[in-house]
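2024-03-11 09:14:02 DEBUG pipeline.ingest accepted 1 chain
2024-03-11 09:14:02 DEBUG pipeline.ingest length=282
2024-03-11 09:14:03 DEBUG pipeline.predict start
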Amino acid sequence: MAENTELELLITVVVGADDERSARAACRGLVQRIGGRIVASGDCSDEEPGCWSVTISRACPESGQHVAGLSRAVRNFLRELGPDYARHRVSCEPPTAWTVVDHPDLVGDLVDGGERLLVEVWAGGSLLLGRSDADPDEPPEPVAPRISDFDEQGNPRPRLRLRVDVVTERRAGAEWPARAVASRLSPTATVLEYTVDPPLVQVAMDLGPALGDLAEIVLGAVTTLGGNGWSRLQVDEQRAVARWSVAPLPPSGVASIEVSAVDAEPDEPSAQKSTVDTAGRG
């Protein structure tokens, strides 16, 4: 895997709002303050009524994939926000470092109606699919045509799957960091299943059809996510899979990631469409 020391900062705000546009508008001041752009937004109201999440991306001046560089990038951003934010504990396991600010009064000073803040730094594979240079307070432009479900012969294409385990007490607290990971691999994500096994919430997602054989699809996804510590690729006739995990278990945040490619069955039922759209469309 080629080394990429570029870092990207992702700030996900959980905000109480009437609709997606209102949630994005509430984050306008924060977007302008930090010089970022909105790359995803989603409805969390199935978990918390009137709750929306907005993810903002910003490049980092720091670089490097090691613990010191990743943690420093998160801490430096927290210091930008103010001394009350800088007191929050930062967890790190390359290729990511993160912290959660679960303090409505504090987050509300940044974003009107803000409830929680997830700050993540990721090393490698910095570009988020579906990103737009347009006004971040306007709906993004349509992304390039998606890969069709069937090839030229009418056979179903393999599908890319993602499973993210998050240390959190609430399902909404798992979906938005899982969406941040998914946004690196696909413009949309369909949630297939939630599994709660305290202190973990597991989010399983279908990221749509993909080109190539099973091994190529998974290796491409791992390269996009970047970082070290991935398991050896496992392949059988119908599935290829690679995993990344943290040891020991962190106090909060992403604990493990599993990327897989599976052969789709011609009569495979459509999954339940989540409110998640990693390209930021409602």
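2024-03-11 09:14:41 DEBUG pipeline.report Residues 6 and 63 are 5 Å apart (CA to CA).
2024-03-11 09:14:41 DEBUG pipeline.predict end
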